[in-house]
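Please, structure for the following, as tokens.
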Amino acid sequence: MPSKRDQIKMTDEEAQAFLEHGRDLHVASINADGTPHLVTMWYIVDNGEVAFWTFAKSQKVVNLRRDPRLTVLVATGDTYEELKGVSITGRAEIIEDFDDVLPYGLRVQQRYWGIADNDLVREAVAAQARKRAVIVVKPEKVVTWDHSKLGGTY
């Protein structure tokens, strides 16, 4: 009989769909003193990789410039049998060129607020993009779980 771990593991396709429909990305980087820095971000999935944008001078970017290791998590569920999640440990690729950052910002805008369908919204996103960096998570280890696969048994 497969282990509980094997029973709850998502397929690659399930994990991808879960990430594409998730809402909040928990991001852990490493502070200079070795403690974790944990924040929640909005994100997109870009070519199968998780990416988010943030202020280029934020603590997480300072941390990732010094040490690119990070772990990100998308998780849902209110009860044990509903718990689902994808945890990705990897390295951050930092993108800072405005022409590369802006398309990510427009996609975040579209995902969380709707398409940037007028000049005012596009100009607001562009103004933010001038101060932001995009972090693309380059996966090294992915762990998934979907407790609903247990069918209510433990």
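The helical segments are 4-8, 12-21, 59-66, 98-113, 119-129. The mean pLDDT is 93.
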